Amino acid sequence: MFTAAAKCSLRRAYSTAVPKTLTIGLIPGDGIGKEVIPAGKQILQALPSQYGLNFKFLDLRAGFEEFQKSGVALPDETVEILKKSCDGALFGAVSSPTYKVKGYSSPIVALRKKMGLYANVRPVKWVEGVGIPVDMVIVRENTEDLYIKEERIYEKNGQKIAEAIKRISENASRKIGKMAFEIALNRQHVRELGGSSLHKSPSVTVIHKSNVLSVSDGLFRETVKKVYESDPARYGSIEYKEQIVDSMVYKMFREPAQFDVVVAPNLYGDILSDGAAALVGSLGVVSSANVGDDFVIGEPTHGSAPDIQGKGIANPVATIRSTAMMLEFMGYQEPAAKIFSAVDENLKENKVTTPDLGGKSSTQEVVEDIIRRF
């Protein structure tokens, strides 16, 4: 789905020759992350031999539970191993508390920054029989906005006041804009080769709130538009659109089929992509990839789901699709396509699904049903 765009935007150094072994870091994190990341591992191990891929797996630590044990949510060792020894990685889920915990910050947010993973790419695609027609990719800037976590609290006239810095840079906005336009071009290329889609032509919708945040969101909007206008020979076939974020929420639920590629600052992209999961039945089926210039981490969009932890009913589809996205951004589109196809067949048949989709199957039963379709 995104390989050509990834190669162009990321300037990856991956060889087109199939290596003997790919080393994949496994970071289950918290809650059901420990149940779904093994599903991604099983999928990779079960890939048909025709692809010539072998895998080595490294188990790595991160998460709130790790923080409670060691006082560190993201050990330096985890980052070092990813940088020095891994070709890609899978991340499960994190149980970040909603209240302030001294010394704790989200490990996935920190990991994105330390690994330079500036884009979070989240496809939301309808499969017949599950959800409503939608075929959209949300491209979320991954390193700044309010997620820089620069906050302070002070008192004025006897009252507490909390402030948070929203940071939008020209550089980050330019990079995420380019990523979005390249993905739009690649999606169109796939359509022209016969791939199924709700869209006949490419479009990119830029999300902002510059009617209120004229400086910060204004810079994001203006910078992305400049990327589009900078290369009319390349991007001229793409329809450029804009939506104020609150209007986007309304239209996304009322007319989701009109959106092709959506690009947004960090906070808006996070909210929109989680909301969009409702269009396709469950957060349990929505995948993502955290992408940088030289690394990619597949990550399901669901949380740690403590209410179902340990019950064996967590939906593995989001992780399995995220595993395919990881391979795709690494340049291995054929095995990725095989995984996507097997998942789609499982969902269309709608016989072996977990309770979040109305089924009665276990996590492992869904994994096995997908594998048998390879």
Question: What does it look like?
Answer:
- By secondary structure, this protein is an alpha/beta fold.
- The protein has two domains: 1-117 and 296-374, Isopropylmalate Dehydrogenase (3-Layer(aba) Sandwich), CATH 3.40.718; 118-291, Isopropylmalate Dehydrogenase, CATH 3.40.718.10.
- Helix content is 40%, strand content 20%.
- It has helices at 3-10, 33-46, 64-70, 76-85, 107-114, 170-192, 216-230, 232-235, 245-254, 266-276, 317-329, 333-349, 363-371, and strands at 22-29, 55-59, 88-93, 119-127, 130-141, 151-156, 159-164, 203-208, 239-244, 261-264, 289-291, 296-298.
- The strands form two sheets. The chain has a ten-stranded mixed beta sheet, sandwiched between helices. A two-stranded antiparallel ribbon has the order 6-7.
- Strand 1, helix 2 and strand 2 (55-59) form a beta-alpha-beta unit.
- The longest helix is centred in the middle third of the chain and has 23 residues, at 170-192.
- The protein starts with a helix and ends with a helix.
